[in-house]
């Protein structure tokens, strides 16, 4: 079914300009169309749903921002939440792909790949696990990105269509919570990089001694704060600054990754030795590890897959959006190969596995290596962290109170909340990183994704009334029950509940649980995604039948 929708929308919408006239009885809604050339010929048709389709003879996509005939509610809109204008749609397919290079090439991606080897997988088993997960995720990624490009709306605004004008705060704040956690993890990694640069005369002082109440040393915590401030200076330049950062960082990151691979190739005496590390797992042990690892890898980008409209709303066309999204499985597969191969080579070079690249670079030593390490890890961390973990929480806070929050203010709050997660504890071991953090939050991201996709494609057939997304009118399409869609909230709860016993068992709260709950937890994203989506579809169909409409 997903492929059917994907093929239909890929073939149709890149060539069409769609404006929603609106289907509410007492309102009208129109768009202003900006033509790029006076010689462009347009053919206009109106379908049964009162949607205007405008096709240009040169098949170029013409976008325009909505002109609201009724004033939007000021508590639901500001400059950061408005649909994008033609001048803001600057992301080409190549630039969208560059975004993924900046996102993928980073310490957590490397660490995730290395963790699979550390947990006992052979190099090829680890690569197949990562590639399989990202091929699966590619489908919801493109499908969720579609409304962003078609309507120019961000994730918080899209969530209003399925959860309701007020109910949208639930998924956006859950997404923001995960983003804040990731922001803390990435910033801690960047702070560790600064710590490496410090001379031993400083690192050997009492400032480097861990404080029990803090869980880390004052010096490392200070480096963490310095890196946080450095990122906020970049965020201050807005989405255009982020686009340029990702675009120009991509080739540098590719070069530095290649140098690391070359180093391990030379020191391990070729790929034969680098890939000599075999699996430590029996057949049954591998499969018991494979499924939670698959879930962890899907979870790795599942949060970003939810708020991908925050970026696709700036894409020039659906073709650019889809071509750009293909960068995820391609670049993630390539970087995973580097991460796993280099991690495997450490067994040959040092006699034991080193899955943390910062520790590895510290072992290599040398002034030049240190400089490249600082440059590479800092750049990789900043490009990943800002795009993946600042944009969504900041937009969620803007959506919560547009009159109080701007994108910049939201980014500052995100930064401080990242401290609360104490990321230095989450990165203590491969098991806590993979099983507790990644698998755990997938139970929150999965059901939200399932509900939004079922609502957009199966319930609303990709037709949204943009004006109603910014209205508190009780007759509006997305006001539902006092601004909350009860069906979406019930489906969300149903998607999360089965995973809770397994999560508490994993963190040690429950000493033992049924094997069924362990299996559910190990497959948290799949279980929550499909169960929530199914429940939402059933409840939506029942409501349609009560209203005298047909459910298809």
UniProtKB/TrEMBL annotation:
One of its GO terms (cellular component) is plasma membrane. Signal peptide: none annotated. InterPro entries: Pur-cyt_permease (IPR001248), Uracil/uridine/allantoin_perm (IPR045225). It is found in: Membrane. The chain crosses the membrane at residues 97-117, 123-143, 219-236, 248-266, 286-308, 328-354, 366-391, 403-422, 434-458, 479-500, 520-539. It comes from the Eukaryota. Coiled coil: none annotated. Keywords: Membrane, Transmembrane, Transmembrane helix. GO terms for molecular function: nucleobase transmembrane transporter activity. It is a multi-pass membrane protein. Pfam families: Transp_cyt_pur. Belongs to the purine-cytosine permease (2.A.39) family. This is Uncharacterized protein. It comes from Vicia faba.
